[in-house]
Amino acid sequence: MTLSSPLIDKNVVDRRRAQRNPELAKAMRKTRDRLLEQTGKANYEYEILRIYARAVAASAVPIGLFVAIVAVAGFTVGLKQQMGIWFALSVGCSAFLALATRKFMRTPQEAVDVEHWKNVFFAGHALTGLGWAYFASIRCTSCGIDFFPFAQVLVLLVAMAATAIICSALRGATFAAFALPIVTYSLTSGRELPPTFHGTMVVMLVMALIFFTYIATHFNRSSRMTLAFQSEKDGLIAELETANAMSDEARRRAEEANLAKSRFLASMSHELRTPLNAILGFSEVMSKEILGKMGNETYKDYARDIHTSGQHLLNLINEILDLSRVEAGRYALNEEPVRLVDAVSESIHLMQIKLQKKNIHLTENFEPELPLLWADVRSVRQIVLNLLSNAVKFTPAGGEIQIKVGWTAGGGQYISVRDNGPGIPQEEIPIVLSAFGQGSIAIKSAEQGTGLGLPIVQALMAMHGGEFRLYSKLREGTEGIAIFPAARVMEAMPAIKPKARPAKRSRAA
């Protein structure tokens, strides 16, 4: 299995969705359920009344036009007096309802008595019901028996549908407005209409009232659910903003603490190294008996142990200081033209003793005639040394290491170090790439390191604008690839040809 490492983060963490998404989804579900429990108990009567008031205010003009059209149609069939009375009554009731909704909209929420305003709005719809009841009681003997009662029913159906849609936020408004008109129609039209026709019209009106009341109730329920979801969304947004603010604050504090630590360690280079150099120097003098025989072999062994431990501690301090300088922004790159093959060859020469000690065969595969690279040669050597040290550490005696230098597909240059060691489990790769992180194989190994080699490689490659990738598979080995971008490759400039001098003219010419 392969995994490429993130480059920007100082401490690499596992960002794979397979591990993070279930926990995130579980937390979101818990928050959603809790908010639903809260919103399910919330009282949305005020918001529902505002929805109702806005709908009534917006539909005042269309309803007025509809009433005017019906009145004009009544005028054309000779019902001028009846239609005039009905028009005045309808406009007056609608005006009362419009004024009530307007006053409600201007009243502050804390001063609103929801039950009082509900009663006011129901009273307004009852008044409009009086107007429609008067319309249902109108009779026209000169219009024809089959025409006018059917037209009345048609107008009542249209008005009922419009009221159910517009006033759906106020539960029961449709019934309050049209129960009386239906009763009035059934009582007043029965004397003049045939029983079958009259019964059909009444049944149609009753069924329409039931149907539109159901539709209005359904719309009312939808409005409440919409408000509940809106409240839930607002609650989630508030919680996310709070969590985000807390996360930003925690990250800021962590970055400040990390930066303070890095600055402290970067400034402690002299204070930490000076006593260690004295320990290493004196222990080496004692172990080699430069000033004379010690007289006791045990003391001589102790001196060797002191020197070995001091050397290990010095290497650890150097790596910590290097990483701290990079994190603190105090690691300055001394960039110059570098031949990548030469820098790698010098690093291999420094590792020859360790390679020979474990009888490891090193295979070199270098691309010939690579152009120069604009980089820090010291950083390049450290990158190669860290990769080779890891490879030597985990390659068994008599094993093989392959090192390659060549072109990338994008025009950059790369360094690849591959070993045939035990490999790294896929789930441990992010741990290996983090500071002081060690895999299970490294912990079991006798040659435990500091866990800073690969993080330093990542940091140095990031400073060069490149990337570091780690590929590994159990029982097949590990490959580390340091990739320099194409922008750092220096193109060879063509040789400048001398300009031909013009031939001198002879005096005779």
Automatic annotation (TrEMBL):
Domain Histidine kinase span(s) in chain numbering: 267-488
Reactions listed under catalytic activity: ATP + protein L-histidine = ADP + protein N-phospho-L-histidine
UniProt keyword Membrane present: yes
EC number: 2.7.13.3
Database matches in InterPro entries: HATPase_C_sf (IPR036890), HATPase_dom (IPR003594), His_kinase_dom (IPR005467), HisK_dim/P_dom (IPR003661), HisK_dim/P_sf (IPR036097), Sensor_HK_Regulatory (IPR050736), Sig_transdc_His_kin-like_C (IPR004358)
Domain of life: Bacteria
Residue ranges of coiled coil: 233-260
CDD domains assigned to the protein according to its UniProt record, in alphabetical order: HATPase (cd00075), HisKA (cd00082)
Chain ranges passing through the membrane: 51-77, 83-105, 117-135, 147-166, 196-216
Keywords: Coiled coil, Kinase, Membrane, Phosphoprotein, Transferase, Transmembrane, Transmembrane helix, Two-component regulatory system
GO MF terms held by the record: phosphorelay sensor kinase activity
Pfam families in the record: HATPase_c, HisKA
PANTHER family to which the protein is assigned, alphabetical: SENSOR HISTIDINE KINASE RCSC, TWO-COMPONENT HISTIDINE KINASE
Protein name (record): histidine kinase
Species per Swiss-Prot/TrEMBL record: Phyllobacterium leguminum
